[in-house]
Amino acid sequence: MKIQLLGTGGADGVPALYGDTRVSRFARANGGKDVRSRTAALIDGILKIDFGPDTWHQMTREGLDARDWTALLFTHSDADHFALDEIQYAVFPFNDYEYVGFQVYGNSVICRAIIERFPEWPFEVFMTESFQSFENSGYTITPIEANHTAGEDSHNLIFESDGKTFLYGSDTGIWPDVTWEKLKDFKLDGMVIECTEGFAPTSYYGHLDAKEVLEVVERLNKMGTVSSDTKIWTTHHSHQGEATHDELVEFFGPHNINVGYDGAVIEIA
Ligand SMILES: [Zn+2]
Fold this sequence. Notes:
This protein has 269 residues and is α/β, with parallel strands linked by helices. It has one domain: Ribonuclease Z/Hydroxyacylglutathione hydrolase-like (Metallo-beta-lactamase, Chain A). The chain has 6 helices and 14 strands. It is globular, with a radius of gyration of 18 Å. The termini are close together. Bound molecules: zinc ion.
């Protein structure tokens, strides 16, 4: 399994469009791994996770082709993950396609928004629910319940294929008990976990800071869900987290956790 991190920034990206934080200023001055577009990922070139406002830029930057997608999988409906209007470019009159070439998966909020916005559209839209697995292109995909947005079933996603298991958790606070319980069933070869708040924790329940990432990984280690062989990467870093890429590398390096950046590739073989 090959996972490409197309974007690794928080909701307003880094540098933030309207932000003058230290991290935003550093990113503007230095570029490189500190420039973070909105969080998204692609598995084996075909399973697209989330469709945020930077999708065009990310696909073009990486030399990728959206016509290769077999599935578009939404984690939740926040604007940095769900740029609904952009989906219209998948069919006529922007090209000659009569049908959307990929299947769309999302929770009830996502499905309702798509159907209301595009009532006549040639879409295949499937509603996802936490802990209800489904199949696409030979992958078994299991949404698990995140602790992120009130009023909707926000997902993290587990992908299984060819004996390999990968967890994508872009937006999640500390998981609810039911999710911890479910995670006992999995042994992860790879995992991407959010680190939105970096070194500047807030009172918001729906995101993790750097210390909480360590706590989550330690608990997963004790459960046997991750081991020293699990490839662990971070994502969804906010400019408000008071942490540059290099500062995060210094913090996470001793814990065998890789700091994500736009364009990073994770190979699970
Ligand atoms: Zn987000």
